[in-house]
Each structure stands twice: as structure tokens, then as C-alpha cells.
């Protein structure tokens, strides 16, 4: 049933509305005032007919900065990048119908990655709802499966309260996107504005502090464990628990393995950090999870890209699962100790309990465990020096390019990636030394995420860090073309993002799967945007350098290693406009290590034909 079906066709008359002391204004003006009173400083979006009263209320005196994008989907991804970079709630405003439906992808993306967003969409007037009016769409119903909460606002007087609730819901508990669908009736109606608003949220009371004996139960499991591992996910990042995770590893001696969204939660230089685990994780990190006797899931959700074949994941481990969302506890793996609460709060309670336990009973001897993990870490390190990694056509190795980007970057750089092979290489090879330095689309894997998210991160860097944190975007030529129109936004909004296009002229990750699992049948994955020639010349559609220049940006291209280094250095020196570098790389490069979809993590391939965890002495039976 559509969310619209129960909406009354007539609003209450003004004299029957609840009137309180306050300043008289329209609902549209109240929306702008509420955003200002909530402390919102940056908003992303695009105008349209059903939201025009709100845009009419934005003027030179408005306290927040509005970033005009060129496509509504980009507004959502830019708000995501802004939210992850700053820790604030990302806010976007778009119109009804196609404007709202274009927001469904970023809403779903934010929902999967627990990013706090408030998405304000225009809607036709109350009397037109259900009539198939021009640009009418049931956005509340359409987003129901992929949103944390949603509102359909039909009265002007409700707008301040709804905005206060939406902002609180988006950022509290497990963060996520909240939709506020604003009818034109509510925007043009008159109301009496006051602040602060009393929120009406019966039943919504997120648990932040662990209850009962679970903390002491968890400490007991640590005392009994000789092969523990901390499996850290994006929830720890959202909780700002970097220091707590590092301290827990130091106190217990446990290694740290991370999911894709949690890259950078502890520095790569931390000796306890084994890197990312799962489908394209390090052999050592994947082995740690498979061989452990205690798996401590911290703000992680046992995603299939991490676990591989679920019933073969960490088969001998007891499980402590810490998450603020009770729905995640036991969803994919039944825990021995379930702990519902905010990660940083829980760890601050757990660490002293573990110290008390150690003071009485001492620490387990983890040397044999670390000897094995260090051997795997040394023998099967992430590199690109194997024969199968060497380009055969004279082009650049994409892994080498990404490593050079990292080596030449400012230590405070915020790294943004799009989705594809370049995303996995970035997660593997970038030197992450600071938290909140990595922004990528994890759960939904949204191609086209990168450029708008980088713009949002750049706006956030300017807002909170006076631009001292440069933003580098690493994108594929395929993913970049999905939102390349946002180069206009970057240029006009003075967002000096630096863009590295890892241009292999194919949909790289799809091609990798076609190579490995579909008989090298490369159906519809050749983009022909740089690898074909006419008359001996490269035939580029598009020519990324000309495209960048057409948008007012600096465009560079690199075929050789010397050209690549020169382009990177030049890009790092330019801070007054966006810079795009078209790196020509080998189309047959593959991301290793790899676990095939649906396979056990024990089958991780370091390179073709090399599966270290199946070797004698390292398999399940020998470890047991």
C-alpha cells in the first residue's frame, strides 16, 4: 500500500492548528530557519517546481552555504562525503518526482554504510496527492526499504519539529538517512515558529551503554583466548572509536583486521594492524579471522564480502559482537556474548574490566599466534611484483600509480575512491595513518559515488579544516563517467579536488570476473576510451584532458612512470581549481589476493595457483 493512501485531502484550517507563541512565517521559511537553528552550515541540492517555495526562502542572509550540483544523485553522494569527512549530518534538498527518485541510490548507499543524511524532497500539494499529478512520486513508499526513517509533512506547523527529529534520528544510534517529504501545501502554509522544538519520538531510544553482565563475560573470553582477533567495521569509525580500538589491541595483544569502511581506524604503521580482510584482503588478516579462537566483531555486520562462505567463516571461534544496532546482533552469526551499545562507550567500559582480569589471572601467551601471523604477513604481503602483475603492453601498472599517489601525498589527505578495481587497490596500498581519511561506497558499491563525494569532502575540509586537508579522488574511467558532469560543481564551488583516473579502458572488476569465471568472454566491458587507435593515434571518447579543460579544470595525462610522477607533483602544487590526471594503465591487471564469491576464506588465492591457507600445516585440521 502506498504511503500516500491515508493522507487527508484537506488540511486543518489555520484556526484549528495548534498555535504557539512564535514568529509568523511560511513553512518554507520555517524549514530554512530550522536548518540554521540545527547548526547546519552546508547544504547540497538542486531546485525544481515542487520545492521552489523553499528555494525562494534561501537568500543572501541565509546562514548555511548551498552547493548547487548538476544531478540530484550527486547531491546525495556529496552530502555523504561531507558527513564522513566532518562527522556532521549531510543535508540535501531536491524536488519531487524524478528529483526525489534520483536520490534513491544515495539514500540506499547511506543506509548500507550508516552515513547520517537528512534528505528533503519536494512533494505536490496535499489535494493533488494520489492523482498522478505532474512530477508526483511516492518517495516515502519508494525509499521505505532503504531508509532509516521518513516523514510526509502536510502542515507548515509541523516542519520545525520534523526537522529537529530527522536531524536527531539521522545522527543518533546507528546513523543513517532520513527522508522529509515536504508537500507544497506545507511549504506555502503559514505557521508560528519557535525553537527549540519538543521532539515526539515514542519508542526511539538507542542503547549506548551495555547492560547486564556482558562486559564481564567478554573480559572472561579474552582471558581464555590464545588466538584472539579484533574484527573492526565501519561502526567503529562512526563512533569515533579509533583510540579505543588501538588501546584494546594494546591491552589484549590481539591483532586488528578491518573491513573496507574501517580503513584508517588505526594507522597502518600500528604493528597490531594486519589490514583488510575478506575477498580482497591481506592473507594475514583473512587467516587471522579464519584461525582465531575469539572473534571480536566491533561495529561490523558479517558482510558476505568479509566472511566468504558464511558457515566456513572463523569456524573455531567464539564470538563477541559489539554493535549499536540490535538488529545486527545474531543476524548472520550467533554471538556468544552479544553487546548492544555505542562502540566507544562499550570499549571504554570493557578495557578496564580486561585490565582487572589480567591483574588477577595474567595475560594469555600470544607469541605462537603472532609468530604465525607475522610469517604470513611477511611471506604474503600486498605487492605488485609478481610476473602476473607486469603490464605486457608498455602501459602503467595501476598498483604502482596508486602507491605513488600515496607516497607523494600530504599526510593529512582525505582519500576518496569510486567503485571497482581501483577501490580495492586503494584500500590495499594507500598508507592510512589517520582516522576519517578514507571515503568510499562500501555496502552498495555505487559507481559514480567518487566525484560528488570528493566535492562534499572538499567542502567539509574547507569548513572544518580551512582546506588544510587536501582531497584526492581515485576513480576508474568507467565509474568517473557516471557523474563526470559534477566537474562543473567542483570548479564553480571552488572545490580543488585532485582526481586520478585509473584508465584501463574497460570495466575492470567486471573484466576480472569475466577472466576468472566466465571463460574470458569480455561481453560489454570494453569502453574503448583510450586503447583503440585510428590512423596510429589514440582515439579517446571522451578525451579526459579536454573534458577537464572544458569544465575549467586542469587536465593532465600520463603514459610513462616519469610522466606520472611529474603529473602527481604538478597536481599537488595546484590548489585553486580541480586537477584531473588520466593515467593509462594495463587493462589485464587484477586485484590479488582474492576469495571467489561464495567460497570459503580458506581458499584465498594470493596469486593464481597459490592458496596459502590450504597448504599443509596451515589448514583447519592442522591448526585445530
Automatic annotation (TrEMBL):
Belongs to the TPP enzyme family. Binds 1 Mg(2+) ion per subunit. This is Acetolactate synthase. It comes from Bifidobacterium bifidum ATCC 29521 = JCM 1255 = DSM 20456. Residues 418-583 form the Thiamine pyrophosphate enzyme TPP-binding domain. Keywords: Amino-acid biosynthesis, Branched-chain amino acid biosynthesis, Magnesium, Metal-binding, Thiamine pyrophosphate, Transferase. The keyword Phosphoprotein does not apply. Its EC number is 2.2.1.6. Residues 25-140 form the Thiamine pyrophosphate enzyme N-terminal TPP-binding domain. PANTHER family: ACETOLACTATE SYNTHASE CATALYTIC SUBUNIT, MITOCHONDRIAL, THIAMINE PYROPHOSPHATE ENZYMES. It comes from the Bacteria. It catalyses: 2 pyruvate + H(+) = (2S)-2-acetolactate + CO2. The keyword Metal-binding applies. Pathway: Amino-acid biosynthesis; L-valine biosynthesis; L-valine from pyruvate: step 1/4; Amino-acid biosynthesis; L-isoleucine biosynthesis; L-isoleucine from 2-oxobutanoate: step 1/4. The lineage of its organism: Bacteria, Bacillati, Actinomycetota, Actinomycetes, Bifidobacteriales. Residues 215-350 form the Thiamine pyrophosphate enzyme central domain. Its cofactor is Mg(2+); thiamine diphosphate.
